[in-house]
Write a structure and sequence with these properties.
Layout lengths: L2 E9 L3 H12 L4 E4 L7 H4 L3 E2 L10 H23 L5 E2 L3 E4 L3 H10 L4 E4 L1 H7 L9 E4 L3 E3 L1 H14 L3 E3 L3 E7 L2 E6 L4 E9 L18 E11 L12 E3 L2 E6 L4 E5 L13 H14 L8 E11 L6 E4 L6 E5 L5 H17 L17 H5 L2
Parallel strand pairs: 1-2, 1-12, 2-9, 5-14, 12-19
Antiparallel strand pairs: 3-8, 4-8, 5-7, 6-7, 10-11, 11-12, 13-16, 13-17, 14-15, 15-16, 18-19
Helix pairs in contact: 1-6, 1-8, 3-8
Length: 371
Amino acid sequence: MTSSEFDVVIVGDGLVGLSCARATARRGLSTCLIGRRRPGIASVAAAGFLAPTVEPARGRALAFTIAARDRFPSFIEELRASTGRDVPFALDGVLRVATNEREAASLARSAGESVRFLSSAEVAELEPALNAPHGACLHADDGMVDNQRLLQLLDGATEAEGIARRHAQVVRVELHAGRIVTRLDDGRDVTADRIVLAAGAWSGSIPGLPRPLPIRPLRGQMMSLAAGTSPSPGLRRPAFGHGGYLVPRPVNREVFVGSTAESVGFTVGTTDAALAAFRQTASRLVPSLARADEVRTWSGFRPMTLDGLPIIGEDPQVPRVVYACGHSRNGILLAPLTGDVVAALLVGAPVEHDLSPFAVSRFSSATAANS
């Protein structure tokens, strides 16, 4: 059995874990990233929305989600400068299509400073392929990122910056006086002063943590259609409507269609019923996709908390344990800013954002254990 020592261990190698590791190492802390990518990891399976205003968080959490979206341009630029590579990314709007007159009236009432209701003619001018006879809301400052390419870029960045990695799973965390021992399934141990838990949907299943965490997997199924088979101009912006959504991936000439929300544990896979529903959603939103070729199908696990908000911050009883997990539907959006605030906490620097909505203490131990 071998052992190694670091200032901080990051558990989880998805976008949140990678962002935390990179930000922590840039603060001068020796950092070890632990994780072996599992089937269904949300960072790979997600659609890549950067859309905090489409289904907005409540209260003080909303400011954090908007700040997270606004962090993306500089984050992408930092990665471009350090790696010489780019990732498809845009904040030029997300559309929420009204499916009937009643919904149109409701959407029109919800319009605000950065959300504008468009008539059917205005939608047609903006997105000729989109079918929106009752109009749509344009969430003008929201957008999307190619999360799969972003994951690849962050993998390369952490390697280039010399961050230690252990491609293994954690079997137990042991909290000792003054140190934390993380035991791995390959027989190795990693010792550190601090630990950051960023293991996505699996965060609550690691033995030895100070408390139970109310995080459960919620399966989302997805489908990709070949946009290149469409004779009309393709969709340029993500669009919600008819119980689902479309996300264009122009580099690959595909359109992602999703998604479901199913409590099936960690069962990977898709169902005929879900895929048929995706076909219907796609054809209603963009009629030219009705006969588009299917490229692939997949599923992933959102790490859902009881209130849909992440758990970010130090454990109140064991501050050497820092949480960066349970991001629910917004892991892609929140990853870069989560890395920033976690790194600030680890070095004792001021945190410029209100983390109180994300405190683990908002859940009682009994509630978390029974979730």
